User: Which sequence fits this backbone?
């Protein structure tokens, strides 16, 4: 859709092209998890995000080039990442390729256990380690940056139950914008919505989404992910140039 | 304009309502400056921003309540501020009122000598003092955050000539996002595009715009201001609540 | 103490001069609170900080100029602030004077209900409002920036019980460094250790310390305050100059 | 040196142990550069830093394990890094080892062309690319954070002449604290003093130091590096723990 404004000044506004990546192992190997996500987490996310009008596709680990060919990534405005068991099986080549695309401006949304993915570690420069406990209690995500567009349509907090616990210290660089902080029943807190920028690309880490619980059917969780797609997929400024240059002044 | 997306999920997208405030003294008292801005800086800005499709109005110091009545501010999504000689003549009541509206979510764009305005000092908590020299040389504003939407349509830098020099140290809190750094011929640099957030409101300080030079006819300068209007005027999350509360857990 | 290092390069290392300010009303008017702090919160803090070797003095609201004369502030490296009932009784002149000293480099530690003090609001530019509940349950402050010197000697978290609850949204600018996040039994979280810089001055907000509970006898709480004194009271760079300047290049 | 304070509370204060790493190629292969740094940049830096009382050692690329054995790094509080021609010759193992030590709390100072080193890219997650020109003109580094301890003893700016030009856009994450901005004669600016934290480790990037110019004999440049050693080598809080944990509340 091209919007024409006033006398000739216009900007193109189009639906973001979203690729949802899932390692897709739990759902095929564990009957309990298959019950929660029979078609896989990626399909559940795609179905949940469909009403928002994005151009959606999915990719999984076992596909050729993990489903992330050069062409696919070039046609991706936002990559959503879910992984857990097989971080080390993602090849160097694909990690390099994703990093390069983020630096060029592709948005990246890293979900839950994706905190230990190679691509997130690569972009953060840290281990991204944390505390955890699989106790199926309530998580309450408090909005601590209500002006952030990622919180549009959300009240003061989101509740997700049951969920896994993630606790501090979370070994990440200090978030450039911290959007959510989680409260857990067992006495822990967690920085659960974290924004970063690397090169021209925006990155959003969002905590909820243990594979054994139906978190990605939660309307508020989907709303945050949809808001994040719009936010990290928004257009931006000019591509930088590098290298040897002549002086501009004499 | 209401956009309907998919099966019923929608969000309203309307033109931001912009109020351009100018103290409007130089242009009426100094014939040299009147030649540059015969109708005042506020009208020059309004004319320059008109093609972008905003809902524009202007207000000046000598108007009743400086033209910033409660009603006007409530109907303002973005306030643009230019002042220089008469910062102290802006009343406590109006400064309080603007601050309250920013905290509720109104965007604020502070231009050039507005760095010493009472409202900017109030929101920053510092003197906002700096070095300066009125030498009519070139300013080159380098983009140091090319992913920032405020730089959309801008190349690697903007040149404005002639301009006044502003030099560091600029006594502001460290910008939450630093978008432009200016180079000056006399050997100085300046953080010339600075983003902040206070409450729900976004604030953007943009340096160029000495009253004696035709800066606000410069297409790139207008483009940055227009981008900033869209950026600081964008919708955001829920209004926070405060005060005594009951526990959510027992 | 002057330390001489190598061949003539030296730097002065002296104990920070600390002024502890308390409005000192609760302890004189409420017998329950007088039992907890018989000599006042300021004296309890002074006694608790004495082992750290600082040069300590106290000041209270009812003293002449609230005990914060020009001379006193000029001889203060770190000002600690506790207030609750009488924020509005602190005069404009003294608020201006403290702000000016912070901008010159005096450190400021704002405790608990001091979040609504005029000086903190002045330096933040926001309301500093929050949610609260006086329910005497446990607070657990998690370290989320273990590299911060303010956390030296502290483990992964501090527990304080009983304490008042403070909950998000806390209407402050995003902390420049977020050091602690509190967990509360009733389901809330709070950004409870927040660092800022204004001018040359460092500011640290630290949440615990309700007047009805013996928080300021807690060894970990005192340790954090002592660490903060060293941190915000540390020496820094050159005093900036402002105003009209000649070019450095021709 | 152990300082005992008051009644038994003490903290250890010792000289930071500094390892200066230099790839050491230019100085052995280019007679022009050998004239400037006859013993190598690492020895020039060691001699320049000696008066500050640090425990200094050096290491170079061609040494076994590049001179950075496990034992050496474990006994290093601050690693200073200079490299240019041979970034790719630094092995995976050593890059991993340095990163791990930084995350554990070792300080890292990256100088000049070290911006493209593997360890800096690893910790930043970006290309760290930039514009450049070897024109031997003046660089003026303006202090934009005069409260930062790294600027102690420095005035409003440092001048270095002759120097190479580095220009924006510099592809780094937004600095957590931006300390210096450089002005260049040819019309460029550059973020030339940048602080980051990764895990428990502090990182400082400092721009000056082209191999063909005698920059590391400049007293102000040495002073900044010495200040940075103290700053990134300072002690900090507790080592985090990770992994599965039991609840703290029931």
Assistant:
């Amino acid at each position: 859709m091209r919007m024409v404004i006033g006398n000739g000044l216009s900007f193109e506004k189009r639906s973001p092209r979203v690729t949802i990546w899932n390692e897709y192992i739990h759902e095929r190997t564990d009957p309990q998890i298959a019950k929660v996500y029979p078609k896989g987490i990626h399909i559940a996310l795609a179905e949940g995000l469909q009403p928002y009008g994005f151009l959606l596709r999915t990719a999984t680990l076992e596909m050729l080039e993990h489903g992330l060919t050069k062409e696919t990534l070039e046609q991706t405005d936002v990559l959503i990442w879910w992984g857990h068991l097989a971080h080390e099986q993602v090849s160097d080549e694909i990690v390099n390729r994703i990093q390069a695309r983020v630096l060029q401006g592709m948005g990246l949304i890293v979900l839950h256990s994706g905190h230990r993915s190679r691509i997130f570690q690569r972009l953060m420069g840290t281990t991204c380690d944390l505390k955890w406990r699989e106790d199926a209690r309530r998580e309450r995500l408090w909005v601590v940056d209500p002006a952030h567009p990622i919180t549009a349509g959300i009240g003061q907090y989101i509740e997700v139950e049951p969920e896994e616990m993630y606790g501090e210290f979370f070994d990440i660089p200090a978030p450039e914008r911290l959007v959510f902080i989680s409260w857990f029943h067992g006495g822990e807190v967690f920085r659960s919505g974290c924004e970063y920028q690397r090169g021209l690309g925006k990155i959003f880490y969002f905590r909820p989404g243990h594979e054994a619980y139906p978190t990605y059917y939660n309307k508020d969780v989907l709303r945050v992910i949809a808001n994040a797609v719009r936010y990290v997929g928004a257009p931006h400024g000019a591509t930088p140039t590098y290298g040897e240059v002549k002086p501009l002044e004499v």
